């Protein structure tokens, strides 16, 4: 092969390689995958901005909504404080407030805090912002929930100690053959339901004690 022919072949190969490299470079720059990648990358930033704006907005309420919340909490407050757990015996008809007051256990309920919060919510200034009205509703409901927990925990602890541990258990232990049918008292869970269960158990045990003693 003469040198001139070899030179033409090498030149042709060089042109092919150059065209291939140029084509690769052009495809790299203009490939369609670039545009979707940019659009996808930009989406989280917009979503995050919208989320941040939403999170920064405080809830609002009207005076009518606050008044409705005050009425609702006041009704629940009266209902709970006036609850009568006993169905028979000397304490039948007495409210839980009366029972706790009789044994000087009302301090644990901190009733004044609940009454003060209801009064505060009921007398909010006329220029209170919608955001502050909503915050006051939340504060009022949280205060009620805390008060309700204090009420029934105090009632349960008092009843377990005085009426069961110091009261009925010694009676059962004194007459195990007859009083054993009373069974074990319910566990103290510090709730209204738990308190009522303990009272029911106590009343049943008291009836059983009367029968064991020949009084019924």
Automatic annotation (TrEMBL):
Keywords associated with the record: Membrane, Transmembrane, Transmembrane helix
Residue ranges of the TM segments: 9-27
Bias-annotated ranges (Low complexity): 37-47
Residue numbers spanned by region Disordered: 37-58
Name of the protein described by the UniProt record: Uncharacterized protein
């Amino acid at each position: 092969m003469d040198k001139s022919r070899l030179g033409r072949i090498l030149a042709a190969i060089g042109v092919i390689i150059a065209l291939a490299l140029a084509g690769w470079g052009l495809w790299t720059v203009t490939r369609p995958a670039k545009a979707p990648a940019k659009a996808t990358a930009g989406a989280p930033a917009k979503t995050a901005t919208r989320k941040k704006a939403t999170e920064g907005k405080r809830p609002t309420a009207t005076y009518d909504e606050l008044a409705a919340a005050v009425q609702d909490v006041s009704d629940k407050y009266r209902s709970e404080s006036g609850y009568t757990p006993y169905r028979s015996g000397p304490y039948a008809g007495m409210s839980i407030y009366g029972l706790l007051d009789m044994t000087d256990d009302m301090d644990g309920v901190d009733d004044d805090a609940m009454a003060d919060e209801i009064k505060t919510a009921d007398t909010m200034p006329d220029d209170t912002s919608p955001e502050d009205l909503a915050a006051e509703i939340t504060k009022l409901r949280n205060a009620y929930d805390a008060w309700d927990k204090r009420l029934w925990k105090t009632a349960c602890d008092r009843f377990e100690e005085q009426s069961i541990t110091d009261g009925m258990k010694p009676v059962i232990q004194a007459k195990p053959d007859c009083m054993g049918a009373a069974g074990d008292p319910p566990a103290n869970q510090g709730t209204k339901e738990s308190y009522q269960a303990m009272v029911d158990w106590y009343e049943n045990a008291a009836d059983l004690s009367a029968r064991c003693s020949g009084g019924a």
